[in-house]
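#lab-general

N.A. 3:47 PM
ok so I finally got the sequence cleaned up, no stray characters, all 214 residues accounted for. can someone with queue access submit it? mine expired

B.Y. 3:52 PM
send it over

N.A. 3:53 PM
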Amino acid sequence: MRAAERGKVTMLYEKERAQLCALCRRLFDRKLVSGADGNVSLRLPDDAMLITPSGVCKGILEPEQLLVQGFDGEVREGTLRSTKEAGMHAGIYRNNPKAAAVLHTHAAYATAFANLGGLPDDVLVEVPVLLGRPALVGYARPGSAQLAEQVAANAENPVILMQNHGVIVTGTTAEQAFAVLDGLENAAQSIAVSLLLGASARIPRAEAEALVKK
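B.Y. 4:20 PM
back already:
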């Protein structure tokens, strides 16, 4: 495909574009993303993904602003600048064939617990039941190969917490990924408020282990 053809938006994947824009608006409305932060993608055929551009508020994205980008980094369709974290998305898709959607946001409460070293699994039953055992990766510069490699190594985990950065949720469908991210942030907020109020009741360790989503 010639460079001129790559830059021309022909609106291939019209259905998927509409789906991704609707998903981004829901994330924005639920305050799971703010401003232009985060990046969201859907898997496409032929080792490619539909991904949000850099610097555009997720609440007002239009279908023609999205990019079709190969896992090799080539922008196959689109005129805006791609997110520098596209390689992180590609790594997840390569290493987790079941992943159909990747949501990376800086959801406030979940990110706060990522900075603290993880989300407690013995305060709220929703954590072990809904989230299982979220992965935790240490700090690496956004957009770096180091970050992409760390995330790819945990690609099969549907919830990844990134210290000093944010969260990543994957799903076999976009709806599933949204539900998990929404549940993650709600659980993180509930736990934060509980601990702030001085809650001391904890789920017994054996019970927390038994509740973990298999």
